[in-house]
Amino acid sequence: MEGNGLKRNLILFGPPGSGKGTQADLLQRHQGLEHIAPGDMLREHRAAGTELGKMASSYMAAGKLVPDEVIVGMIRHRLEQGAVGTGFVLDGFPRTVAQARALQELLAQIDRPLDLVVVLDVPTEELVERLSRRSGVEHREDDRPEVVTERLAIYRDQTEPVLAYLADQVPVVKISGVAPVAEVNSSLLRVLL
Ligand code: ADP
What we know:
Elements: E1 9-13, H1 20-31, E2 34-36, H2 38-48, H3 51-62, H4 68-80, E3 88-91, H5 97-109, E4 116-121, H6 124-138, H7 145-167, E5 172-176, H8 181-192
Parallel strand pairs: 1-3, 1-4, 2-3, 4-5
Helix pairs in contact: 1-8, 2-3, 4-5, 6-7
Adenosine-5'-diphosphate binds next to α2 and α3.
């Protein structure tokens, strides 16, 4: 059974390195939610050498946000393809208030309002440590220390305000992201019930 009664239209919110991708993958595998991650979509575009990928690549390498209209266009396309299944988990979107406004419009159009925003809470020192560890394993160019600093600053300045915007419209819960993956996953499932 696919978790009847589970909250199924979600945003997983949190800073870079908080574990959104890992948890969203688990929700996709075990709860059948569609994992929608613009960061992954952009990396696929870049690997495939599309115009969009080429255009996004310098922003990504510098840890800057890709322009809103590009990201919103990409998400609109994905949502219009009906890729929301029985539920979806947005990971890395929205990252600006403009993106959040656009998202609310898109979801209203397809009649799939958000059920919940889950914030993964991880202290900055732990994020820096995780991302520097990851840079040694995955060699993501944006995990280099100077780029990590930029990504964290952008999160604080442009992405955190999204939470206040969303909190007026959607329930928001915060869970600790500092625990083994399976434990964070259990906390996450508990708040989806
Ligand atoms: P992380 O959450 O670890 O920073 P992501 O894979 O989500 O990593 O994003 C990698 C990069 O892709 C970002 O630094 C940014 O350049 C770009 N990107 C991803 N999502 C968005 C978004 N919603 N708006 C603008 N740029 C984005």
